[in-house]
Amino acid sequence: MSIHVTLDVIALVAAIVGLGVAAQFLAAKYRVPSVLFLLLAGVAVGPEGLGLIRPDTFGDSLSTIVGVSVAIIVFEGTFRLEYRAIRDASKVVDRMITIGAIIAFVGTALTVRLVLGANWDIAFLIGALLIATGPTVVAPVLAVVPVREEVATTLEVEGIVNDVTAAVLATVLFKAMTAQYLAPQGYVWLFLQRLALGILVGVLIAGVVWYLLTRVELPSEAAPQTARLLALAGAVIAFAAADSVFSEAGIVAAATAGFVLGNLDLPHQEGILQFKRDVTVLVLSFVFITLAALLEFEELFALGVAGLVVVAALMTVIRPLAVFVSTAGTGFTTSERLFMSFVGPRGIIPASVATLFAVRLQTEAPPSDPAGATILLGTVFLVILVTVVLEAGFARRFAGVLGVTESD
Fold first, then answer.
1. Residue 302, helix vs strand vs coil
2. CB contact set of 11 (below 8 Å; sequence gap of 6+)
3. How does it sit in the membrane (predicted)?
4. Which CATH architecture describes the domain 2-402?
5. Residue 152: which H helix or E strand, with range?
């Protein structure tokens, strides 16, 4: 019996990998972000489609798989970030990850509270999760839409930093929901604990990897492969070490390790980057298809028209407000600001964390809240579905209409 179940899981993993590669092929051929095809593939094999993947298919291990996968994806994203590019766009980036994030957080929470009637705990939890645009959905868009470097860098850094911010802030808020007695300074302390630990662990792991790659002599034929594997191990170890102490600190650690290593003079750096890109494609495919397969239309339909109103407010009011306020008085043109307002799809972090919290809200007491769990999961997945389909799917065409694309 166990052998049969194992074979079924292996077959499903193989099918997911195959669908992921097919999605990447179609994305390259039609120059459409791959997340669109990955999302559609996930829905097709999930309970709403063929029913090959169900919520209990991977059991309790799914959250661990998602966590490690996100660490690899975030590590690869920060590894590619150059400090020079961030410094050149620092004014806008700083505003986007502070002022823009606050506008997104508060605006989303108020909208969910007023339109869906959710309690404040759930409203702020949704607001925190939907701060994240994320490298998993922004990077595929930028891969097929050639925009000015400052625009691309701003969107990419915003996605990476806000992924981390959303994960940590949502975890702190959820912990506060269970504690019920936290003073305001308690929220700040929980947030800073996770942030500081993640940065510390990330820097330490990056230092170890750097030392091994630059100070330890290896046979020339083994050095390139060893460098690639060390970088991959660094991402996973940084995540695991920090996450074992504080939940969600692992994402901060992986992001920090990737950024530090990416800006050091490492041997075989180009080979490391290419290897990480290939691995990221595989884990991105697996995670997106698997999480999309957990999508249940019943939870989306339960929100009714009010759910669509929330999504419309996020896309047409809150996101543009965050972008235009953050880019005021900078060198970005109106067309570029409109494009940045359009590109705000949500992805892996909101989906995975919302799923985890919804399960806890349904099964744990406190903070048992089945109705809140439905609003949480339904809202987050509806936002992901609509923003990925519309914003990722039409980003290239919209950029062409605005005239912000540069020659390939």
1. coil
2. none
3. Multi-pass membrane protein
4. Up-down Bundle (1.20)
5. helix 149-179
The model's pLDDT over 293-334, given as tens digits with 9 standing for 90+, comes to 766 777 778 888 999 999 999 999 999 999 999 999 888 999
Tokens coding 165: 């911010």
The pair of structure tokens assigned to 49 is 């489609």
Q: Yes or no: say if 218 and 226 are a contact pair by the CB < 8 Å rule.
A: yes
Backbone angle region of 186, left / alpha / beta, with phi > 0 → left and psi within -120 to 50 → alpha: alpha
Angle in degrees, CA 18, 24, 29, rounded to 5: 125
Query: Do residues 125 and 385 touch, judged by C-beta distance below 8 A?
Result: no
Neighbours of 108 (CB within 10 A): 25
Q: Is the Cβ–Cβ distance between 171 and 223 less than 8 Å?
A: no
Structure tokens at 385: 């579905």
Residue 63 near residue 294, CB atoms below 8 Å:
no
Instruction: State which amino acid sits at residue 121.
Output: D
258, 199 in Cβ contact below 8 A? Answer: no
Contact 157, 99 (CB under 8 A): no
Q: What are phi and psi of 405, to 5 degrees?
A: -80, 150
pLDDT tens profile 56-111: 777 667 777 777 887 887 788 788 777 776 676 678 888 998 999 999 999 999 99
Q: In the chain, how long is the greatest CA-to-CA distance?
A: 65
What token pair was written down for 249?
């600190």
